[in-house]
Amino acid sequence: MKYSILLFVFINILLQGCILEKDNDSSEFSENWKSQCHEIVDEAFYNYVTTLTDNTFSSITRYYYDSSCTITNSTPIYSNSGTYTISGEVTISSGVTARKIDVIILKEDNKDVDIATFDLISIISGKLYLGLLTDTLDSTSANKRPIDLDFNDPRTKI
Length: 158
What we know:
Blueprint: H1 2-24, E1 32-34, E2 38-41, E3 44-53, E4 56-64, E5 78-91, E6 97-108, E7 111-124, E8 127-130, E9 155-157
Antiparallel strand pairs: 1-3, 1-9, 2-3, 3-4, 4-5, 5-6, 6-7, 7-8, 8-9
């Protein structure tokens, strides 16, 4: 009986370790991800490439004259970087499973900043999706984390 209790405790500790490891595992997201081409205003467009690796990220935004984001304009490139943590799974209204991602932006255009965002992240059919931001769920705090994914703004691996 004493050994079965010890075995039970040992297995429980191992299982908790596996769960914690899965909660913090960001390897499935470690890639270079490119956004779609977005229109800012008439005849001005942008896209960005985000690199996720080992709980750090960097992102570069480029500006373009055309809607296919091929002809760059002279607007300076915008960049930011920082760290992120991936945690527990959530099931959104569409039934898809997403993970929570907490991001700390530490640099914006080489200037030190400290900005926290609280979002969702998921890979579906090889595309990366983030949370759908709204006026009330704008990712500025854990209580304002989006509850759905933005299926209109996928990122693709490059």
